[in-house]
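All the exercises in this workshop are built on plain-text protein records. Sequence and backbone structure share a record, each on its own labelled line. The question running through the whole workshop is how a given chain folds. The record below serves as our worked example for the rest of this section.
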Amino acid sequence: MGEQPIFSTRAHVFQIDPSTKKNWVPTSKHAVTVSYFFDSTRNVYRIISLDGSKAIINSTITPNMTFTKTSQKFGQWADSRANTVYGLGFSSESNLSKFAEKFAEFKEAARLAKEKSQEKMELTSTPSQGGALKRNVLSVSKPAKKKESAPGELQSPLTSESINGTDEERVTPDTPQPPEPRAEPSHNALPFTHSSPNINKHWEAELAALKGNNAKLTAALLESTANVKQWKQQLAAYQEEAERLHKRVTELECVSGQTTVIKSQKTELNQTIEELESALKAKEEELERLKAEVESANEFQSERDSLTQKLQDTELRNQTLEEQLSDLEQRLESNQQQREAFQKSLRSLLQLLDTKIFELTELRDTLGRLMESS
């Protein structure tokens, strides 16, 4: 179908509650893949998400849509065609910002594509409006111009194609009908007073042919007017058929997009299954190893009992040693206190001794000075 995924991410999908229009209703039990798709044949961007085989998002991006960030990890947009509001909850703020940037980018692309298509429609529709009838009128006036340059040649009468127009130039039901063309040309005809008799006869024959063609053209216009109602009915039937075919194409495009997403999800599931199988194999190997260890543990049960008895004996001995250690710690603490008191008294004696030595030194210096002075 020409539709390919161009950007994908994972998010929790919500829709607005249709009854309250306020509360969010989750449409997926866990995070699912949300993808942007581009249809190159129609220049259309769409957002599609599947939960298993069910399409929970199928939204066509239009220029009047707006993606709004309502929190750091949640965003929403309204789809008037689906008559709902979609919400996406992301695992991180960067994923939300990336999705919003892509939304704005594809929205601008959709706007440009719409403007180009409108320009093409205007260019194709403008030349075609009233084109058939105008060309019929010109076909009536052109022979007079030719006769003006070459009066000796007789112009052949208009054919049925020149009256009714070709298949591309026939009057459409929506094309306005111009007034009936004049039977007698005025500005292209030469004055009869200055013409020879042969030329006058030629102009009379030409005038009769133009009157006959005018009658034919008038009959064709009346017939086309009578067929307008039938054409309108056929047009309405064609429009209904086109609408039905458009809906069918949209369904087929949705199925095609779902097939692509399902293939990617199938690949992810196959990888997950392979990882789980390898993990299961590792668990089985570990289980076999544990069984072997249990068997060996049964063999060491008696040894464990003996070790338990030895451990109990060791704990009793350890308790006795702890009591002895506590007694020694108390004695050590008392000895340390005595030692600190002894050191304190010793420091006070040393300070006193230093004071006495200083006084004796001063006394000796004084006696020495007295002896020198005497």
